[in-house]
Design goal:
This protein is about 35% helix and about 15% strand. The protein is of the alpha/beta class and about 170 residues long. The protein folds into two domains: about 1-140, Aconitase, domain 4 (Alpha-Beta Barrel), CATH 3.20.19; about 140-170, no CATH class. The protein is globular and about 45 Å long. It holds the Pfam family Aconitase_C. One of its GO terms (biological process) is L-leucine biosynthetic process.
């Protein structure tokens, strides 16, 4: 369960983490500046397990993975949005930041609400209002990547030959 930090449509990667801070990929350093220009209270007010909720086209802009790294580094449990920019979606998965797409939840959940998220079922429960929403659940392999901490950690934990066999050689 975590507190919601709400953002609107077309939130771009420079609003998530301004380019001048992208001289590192250290999650804690990036987290110290995440959303600094649009929601300066974010870094002081977040707690591990909080949730970011955004509108349409969340994470549009540059292809740098700094944006999801900064969000994850701030202790955010997951991001819920109406839709994602494709490159942000892939970068989030690759670095192990769980994301769910649910337009209704993104529209109705308010800043400060307490929410509970079940990543494997895709059920989002707004504890504050008592409403539940059904997002498309994350596929098992994406959950495993998130649990490992990202694609690099996942691949380090698994034998590539085993993965190739499980995928029918299509990796």
């Amino acid at each position: 369960m975590g507190k919601v930090w709400k953002f609107g449509d077309n939130l771009n990667t420079d609003e998530i983490i301004p380019g001048r801070y992208n001289i590192t990929i250290d999650p804690q350093e990036l987290a110290a500046h995440v959303f600094c220009e649009i929601k300066p209270e974010f870094t002081q007010g977040t707690q591990s397990g909080d949730v970011v909720v955004g509108g349409q086209n969340f994470g549009c802009g540059s292809s740098r993975e700094h944006a999801p790294i900064a969000i994850k580094g701030a202790g955010i449990r997951c991001v819920i949005a109406a839709s994602y920019a494709r490159i942000f979606f892939r970068n989030a998965i690759n670095i192990g930041l769980p994301i769910l797409e649910c337009p209704q939840a993104a529209a109705e959940i308010r800043e400060g609400d307490e929410v509970q998220v079940n990543l494997s079922s895709g059920v989002i429960t707004d504890i504050t209002t008592g409403r539940s929403y059904q997002a498309q659940p994350l596929p098992d392999f994406v959950l495993k990547i998130a649990e490992a901490g990202g694609i690099v950690a996942f691949l380090q934990e698994h034998d590539i030959d085993e993965l190739m066999t499980a995928a029918g050689g299509a990796v």
